[in-house]
Amino acid sequence: MSLRNIGHRLYQGEVSFDFVGKRKIWYSISAVIVLVAAVGLAMGLHLGIEFKGGSVYTVHKPGLSASQAKETADKIIGSKTALVQTTDKGDVRVQVSAQESIPATTFTKEFSQAIGVQEKDINAQVIGPSWGADISKKALTGLIVFMVLVTVYMAIAFEWRMAVAALVALVHDLLITIGVYALVGFEVTPGTVIGFLTILGYSLYDTVVVFDTVKENTRGITKQSRRTYSEAANHGLNQTLVRSINTTVVALLPVSALLFIGGGLLGAGTLNDISLALFIGLAAGAYSSICVATPLLAQLKEQAPEMKALAKRVAQRRASEAKAAAEAAARGEEPDSEQDAEDGVPAGMVGQRNQPTSRTRGKGRPSGKR
């Protein structure tokens, strides 16, 4: 069966996965993942020198490997804290924390002698701790402003329950991504912050697409008694399921190339800063929009008095349908609830039904025409 056929059947309601009804399972999975991420975050993030200050030395020498440069740098500073990466241009980038307290001129001189290059061939850049603190403050401010704007937009465009569900999904994605960064020990740079904001925007986009379909499916839902809000929301989620999966897979393909081929095979370490954030964030965003945001929205919405009344009417109707079906089965008759639904008569309602007019009813009678 093709994916297109599955998507059509999901949209028509012929096939349905009960994501909303099994929300406790998804909440448990998310809680475990977030807990592991929190443990990693408690261990501390590996902040780049842009945030904590230090020196960056970039040198171009054919044949110089990252391991050789790190061994040389560690000997000069007297510790193993030097971070060495290769750039996409083939240069070697050495980062030394401000805590090492070694002058840039001293490091440049000793490093150039050790690897056999001239001092002018080493580009030294010193970043003070105050500048790094200012960058950290701006990054945090940007994140907070983004969250506030998202909440206000969702509350205006949809409703406050959708805004809360979307915000929880965004925090969920952010915690997981940051936790993974802490666990794998990747360096957090300004590129990483850009990656964070990018994946939050993607997660919001995916959630809005699902919520828009849910909004259409639940418009005027209290005027009927065939299904509850959770069931209508779950149907909307299934309608957009294949679209969400396709969008995520297509987005992950180029990001995977950056992370595994560019950063892994080709050794372009600078690509890891943003590609890991994008890879984890895209996967977490797709999961949260399906398994966190929509089930949470349905749970919040079901607490409203009108939705509680709707759920009660749906339960009463289904009980009536079941009773009518049991009585019909006892009499050896076929239940006509499906036919009632097709004719516009609510299932379980007993009463006179309109019969089709017989073609021979008026045969032999005068038509009244002369």
TrEMBL record:
- Origin, by domain of life? Bacteria
Primary localization class, coarse: membrane
**Where are the annotated coiled coils located?**
none
Stored Pfam families: Sec_GG (PF07549), SecD_SecF_C (PF02355)
Enumerate the spans annotated as Protein export membrane protein SecD/SecF C-terminal domain. Answer: 113-302
Is Protein transport a UniProt keyword of this protein?
yes
List all Basic residues biased stretches.
360-370
- Keywords, in A-Z order: Cell membrane, Membrane, Protein transport, Translocation, Transmembrane, Transmembrane helix, Transport
What does the function comment of this entry state? Part of the Sec protein translocase complex. Interacts with the SecYEG preprotein conducting channel. SecDF uses the proton motive force (PMF) to complete protein translocation after the ATP-dependent function of SecA.
What name goes with this protein? Protein-export membrane protein SecF
Q: What lineage does UniProt assign to this protein's organism? A: Bacteria, Bacillati, Actinomycetota, Actinomycetes, Kitasatosporales
Q: Which gene encodes it?
A: secF
